[in-house]
Amino acid sequence: MFKGMGGLGDMAGMMKKAQEMQTKMGEMQDALSAITVTGESGAGLVKATATAKGELVGLDIDPSIFVPSEKEMAEDLILAAIKDAQARASERSQQEMGKMAEGLGLPPGMKLPF
């Protein structure tokens, strides 16, 4: 009489799991906004701080790089520090996503959708 209910029960379970995963992914996005990484260049003369989501939130520049004749070098150091921070943010984000995937029982190396 209720022959098809097993399939519906499985579907409800899958929907619940999908909702749980969506909630966890939202929580992870919030966590990534709170994690910061620092990139640097010029042996620390320029430091850029970004969230693990890649948003630049700070820049620390040693005033010694502001020499008018060395304008291009200063710009290069600033860009290099920002790129370093973004690379570190991407790496940290992937680490955190991997931890979340493991916690959800997903296979290692599975990419989450963002």
TrEMBL record:
Record region (Disordered): 89-114
Chief subcellular location: cytoplasm
Glycoprotein is among the record's keywords: no
Keywords linked to the UniProt accession: Cytoplasm, DNA-binding
GO molecular function, a single term: DNA binding
InterPro entries, per the entry: YbaB-like_sf, YbaB/EbfC
Subcellular location(s) per record: Cytoplasm, Nucleoid
Pfam family, one: YbaB_DNA_bd
GO CC, any one term: bacterial nucleoid
Annotated family: Belongs to the YbaB/EbfC family.
Primary role: Binds to DNA and alters its conformation. May be involved in regulation of gene expression, nucleoid organization and DNA protection.
Subunit structure and binding partners: Homodimer.
Name of the protein: Nucleoid-associated protein SAMN04488526_0062
